[in-house]
Amino acid sequence: MFIFLRSSIIRRFLLCLGIGVVLLVPAQAAIVISNTRAIFNGADSEVTVKLQNAGERPVLIQSWLDKGDPKAEPGAVDVPFIVTPPIARVDPNGGQVLRIVRAEETLPQDRESVFWLNVLEVPPKADKPDVNTLQLVVRTRIKMFYRPEGLAGNVKDAPGQLQWHVKTEGSKQMLSINNPGLYHVSIVDAKLVSGGKDMPLDEVGMIAPGETREVELKAGVANGGGAKVEFGSINDYGGTDANEAELK
Fold it and tell me: Which of 147, 189, 192, 194 is a Cys-bridge partner for 227, taking CB atoms 3.0 to 4.6 Å apart?
């Protein structure tokens, strides 16, 4: 989670020099989202997400969905859902329920789809407007999976269906991960274990249905021979399930 820092003094100084800048630093959000992900089941007309203001001051929030581009502006994203209320005030220790309502029937019905829910915290006005202050704007994003009604298979089995193998491209060795299933698989803490050595795999991330992801290996590995991949997968509740798979 990050915030954008904007200081009136710094901004004016940099603009005088012809320089524009945005600084990103770690931040603690006042708004806490009850879910780490939302699941929109195809049989339902809406899904709700609960927010809580754990801070000491009221917060104005803006909420919207995007298709995966964190730079997309709220009004410029065409998604078949409506988030309501799009703007709300949340008092200290107060809560707010966001309703995500399906507005169109245009999504694929033969596989899962993913969107991102954005919750932007707009800080209150400074107590002393004549004093230069930093304005902190915090945005939190979580995934929302649309799961069509009657989709074949079980999401719990999706991590075990991933296909892992090593291939050579010129002088490079690549680890290929294919997802033949109908559900997304979000991978964390993956490592390749071969010859008694662990090789961290830092660039795997989320594998979409039908997608093949390739990661360059830093050391030589052969398929078979006892080599395997150990990885965690994020389940519907935000927990991490342990998995392992042989290279084939």
Answer: 194
pLDDT at residue 130 in the model? 65
For residue 8, report the phi and psi dihedrals to the nearest 5 degrees.
-65, -40
Give the Cα separation of 86 and 50 in Å (integer).
14
Q: Cα separation of 82 and 107, whole Å?
A: 14
β-partners of residue 192 are: 199, 229
pLDDT at 145: 98
Q: Using the structure block, give the residue that is written with the tokens 């590995």.
A: 221
Chain-centroid distance of CA 23 in Å reads: 21
| pTM, two decimal places | 0.83
Q: Which residue has the tokens 């939302």?
A: 38
- CB of 199 closer than 8 Å to CB of 221: yes
Q: Please, what are the domains in the chain?
A: 2-147 (2.60.40.10), 155-246 (2.60.40.10)
Q: Is the pLDDT of residue 190 over 50?
A: yes
Amino acid at 4: F
- In percent, how much of the chain has pLDDT > 90? 63
**HEC profile for 219-242?**
CCCCCCCCCEEEEEEECCCCCEEE
Whether 51 and 98 have beta carbons less than 8 Å apart is answered as yes
DSSP code at position 14 = H
Is 158 exposed, middle or buried, given 0-12, 13-18 or 19+ CB atoms closer than 10 A? buried
